[in-house]
User: Which sequence fits this backbone?
């Protein structure tokens, strides 16, 4: 059996550590005398489309993976989130891992281009309720991206690989309102980067949730996350100007 590459192993280890930290921090927060804390675990899936450009050195590949290509291009993906709130404050940790690949060739097969993207994202968010249905958000988002680019023309093949990781601050708002009965609607938007890690990062989420019971709910929605990251010069140059977006479904357990 082939072993995991070192960079992928580090990302999976970081995901496990982040999850352990969230879990270990939950009891302390839940026992806070400030109020009754409600904890929720989210498990969700997303059918992402990726658009934009990726460049390593002087090699550049246009990325356009649509929904119909998803199951052909997805190699592995995992998504989960944890939230704790007391009505005034909320704290959320959200992590996603995706390994996507894309390749395109001319009709005659004389030339082709390919891209493999290995991406891990962890977003930690603190929220404060400023109005009954509106939260102000402050987040830190960690990105870890590995990209393998391939260009072939006739018998000539060129490849390039790079790893990049950075942290971006984000400011956002989260609006949630009951619709009817057990249904509620959520709309969230964040923007950041500001040159700290990337030049620009933004995140948007819209979803409709059905509260099946006091402890269980399910939801459908649409999510997008984008970044414009640039680093290095010459052969060490790398730029990722990518948007990942798509519909998703999830379940939530509260306690």
Assistant:
């Amino acid at each position: 059996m082939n072993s995991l590459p070192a960079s992928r192993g580090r990302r999976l280890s970081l995901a496990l550590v982040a999850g352990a930290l969230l879990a270990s921090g939950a009891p302390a927060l839940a026992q806070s005398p400030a109020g009754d804390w409600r904890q929720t675990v989210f498990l969700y899936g997303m059918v992402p489309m990726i658009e934009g450009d990726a460049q390593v050195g002087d090699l550049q590949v246009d990325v356009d993976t649509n929904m119909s290509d998803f199951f052909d291009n997805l190699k592995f993906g995992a998504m989960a989130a944890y939230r704790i709130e007391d009505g005034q404050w909320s704290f959320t940790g959200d992590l996603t891992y995706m390994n996507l690949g894309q390749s395109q060739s001319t009709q005659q097969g004389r030339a082709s281009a390919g891209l493999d993207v290995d991406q891990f994202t962890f977003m930690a968010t603190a929220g404060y309720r400023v109005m009954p249905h509106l939260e102000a958000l402050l987040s830190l988002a960690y990105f870890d991206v590995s990209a393998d680019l391939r260009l072939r023309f006739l018998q000539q093949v060129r490849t390039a690989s790079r790893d990049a990781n950075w942290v971006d601050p984000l400011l956002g708002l989260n609006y949630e309102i009951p619709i009817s009965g057990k249904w509620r609607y959520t709309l969230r938007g964040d923007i950041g980067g500001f040159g700290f890690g990337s030049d620009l990062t933004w995140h948007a989420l819209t979803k409709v949730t059905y509260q099946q019971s006091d402890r269980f709910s399910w939801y459908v929605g649409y999510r997008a996350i984008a970044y414009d990251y640039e680093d290095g010069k010459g052969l060490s140059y790398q730029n990722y100007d990518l948007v990942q977006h798509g519909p998703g479904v999830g379940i939530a357990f509260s306690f």
User: Anything to note?
Assistant: Helices lie at 6-30, 70-73. The chain is about 10% helix and 70% strand.
